[in-house]
Amino acid sequence: MEILFILATINLLLFMVLATYDGFYLHLFKYALFNREESLFEHKTHTIRAILFPLIIWALFINETNFLFFLIGLIVVLIDVLVLVVDAYSEKESRSFMGGLPQWEYIIHLFSNAFHFSAIAIVLALRLEIVENTVVFVNTIAPSSAHDLFQFVAINVIPGAIILALLHFILMLEKPKTLWINYRSKITCC
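and the corresponding structure tokens:
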């Protein structure tokens, strides 16, 4: 079980690094997708996924005893997958202003989502067990340093994930959008 917690922690950290670079720097800062008519739908799908992510972390990664919250987490993951499909389908038109999605950014998306869903799959493997042809929810995790590290990382991911989700959301509003664009232009001009 130790190795699974270590792998889940590594996947979560790698996802956070790539998602922060892609979701914050590329989408919000460099390309300002929220401020482009053709990219607005993509920004909305990213906003939904950004809102879903802290819920997934809390319901699946941090919650260890409540089966109802675990089920809610599974439903949120399914919604996340559906939104991802819609997002991926819409990206060609969304990035028409730059000649389509650059191949290197596509690769970032590929790896980012691979780490995201790998972490989730590992957590599901830790939380579910097959006993006598029945899937059973495991609500007792033996204490270990790898488990403690995983919990520490998961808990500390939440504030940044919430901030990124709020930033995505408020950039759909005119006044914050204008402030962000002005701030962005002052930084990029120097």
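(Above: one complete record from the training split.) The beta strands are 128-131, 134-137.
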